[in-house]
Amino acid sequence: RTVPEGVTTDLGVLRLLGDGRLAGRVVFPGGEPFPGVRLSARAVDKAASPGLRRANMRTDDDGRFSLTALAPGPFRLTAFGEDPLPVNGNDTFQSGDEDVELVVDATLIRARCVDAAGSTVPMKGIEIATISLESSTEHDVTGMTSFGFKRERDGHSFMIAPGLPYRLQATDAEYRSYFAVLTGDLRAGIHDVDLMEDAPGLGSLRVVLPPSGAGEGAQLTIGDLQRDGEDVMGGMVMLSGNAADGCTAEQKGLLPGSYTATIRLQGDDWSALETEKHAFEIVAGAQHRIDVNAFVGGRIELRVGVLGDESEEETRLRAKVRVLAAGSTEGSWLQVTSKRKGGATVYGSRLFADRTPARSDVLRPGTYDVEVESEGFRTLRATATVVAGAATDLQLDLERE
Fold it and tell me: Is the pTM of this model over 0.85?
């Protein structure tokens, strides 16, 4: 029928071709209805007509669905999570069948955050990760999916693969973390899971620094967290207090096992912790405490160049620096931070031999022997005295062999 321009035309009642219908319900293997799952029906015969050869909808709260205006013939039904979900038994049904039962082998998790009283805490986001529960050389986190929400919500539903262990971590509007561990023995069906700040099956780490001479802006950091030599995921580090008056750092949501971590003091140029590398054990349902102490020290500010090189072109040589307490034969490669003009910041034991300033980590007050090595040059040795709250300038020129 022709529809004239600028005129409202009554087309009457439009009827879709095809009078085929598929109706029924989607269930878990135990017969429990599967609500809100996305369902797709596709005709086996790609040329089937008249009617729709493809249709989609979501099941209602009772797992029921009804697809109409379908073409005649068989249709294959597929239920979807992030990916197609496995089906037990038949997945192909004849158009006109109104007693369909599609059995989906999946596990639906309905997660929420709760406080100590069991009341719901709205969440702002959630991470779902498959994990290794055994202390081994395998990665703790083997796959992760994250969901962030523009607005807080009371919970979030998602599907997981049956038989795999998972670690759930959610955050609230105040960036507190909530956790749960699914051990992998959940059967297919619907499971309600409460995430808690102190979740069963997980432990936590608490670092305590007593009042010190560090500046008020200094804070503890927990980094390089590893379990059996592999990087692991923990909750956000929660800080309280300040380094001058005493402070703490706490990290929750840790799987049981053997850990190492680097604990540092940041935010004050002249303060550092006496010990930064720590090894410890995390036990389920318990908190491991590490007491640390700070000192006020100084730094060496080093500039290395090449003897006799007066050209303006930057020398692209790199030198390695070692620092030893005066008179000692054992020392460590000095950690320095330098930044080339127009380049990236470099952190490590090597620096550019172009007189770019390089600052050491905080050192205890005292006298140090400094050694500088670079291929094709003689090893340089010098002495530097470090005082608290100051940087000691040291300029050295490499001499070619």
Answer: no
The whole-angstrom separation of Cα 263 and Cα 279 is 11
Dihedral sign, Cα of residue 209, residue 213, residue 219, residue 221: negative
Residue closest to 176 by CA, chosen among 197, 203, 205:
197
In sequence order, the 6+-apart residues with CB closer than 8 A to the CB of 250 are 204, 205, 206, 207, 237, 238, 240
* β strands within 228-354, DSSP E: 230-231, 238-242, 246-254, 257-266, 271-273, 277-282, 287-291, 294-296, 299-306, 318-325, 332-333, 336-339, 345-348, 350-352
Parallel, antiparallel, or unpaired: how do β-strands 219-227 and 203-209 relate? unpaired
- What is the separation of C-alpha 336 from the centre of its chain, rounded to a whole number of angstroms? 28
Residues forming a β-bridge with 130: 143, 166
- The pair of structure tokens assigned to 175 is 């960036």
Instruction: Dig out the tokens for 290 from the structure.
Output: 């590490």
DSSP per position, 120-162 = EE-EEEEEEEEE--SSSSS-SEEEEEEEEEEEEES-EEEEE-T
pLDDT digits (tens, 9 = 90+) for 287-300: 999 999 999 999 88
The tens digit of pLDDT for each residue in 152-207 reads 999 999 888 777 888 899 999 988 899 999 887 888 899 999 999 989 889 999 99
- Cα-to-chain-centroid distance, residue 16: 49
Determine what percent of the chain falls in helix, strand and coil, rounding each to the nearest 5: 0, 55, 45
Alpha carbon dihedral 293, 298, 299, 301, in 10-degree steps, equals 170
Rg (CA), the chain: 32
CA distances to 27, 64, 164, 191, 226 from 160, rounded to whole Å, are: 16, 22, 8, 11, 26
- ∠ Cα 348 354 360 (to 5°): 35
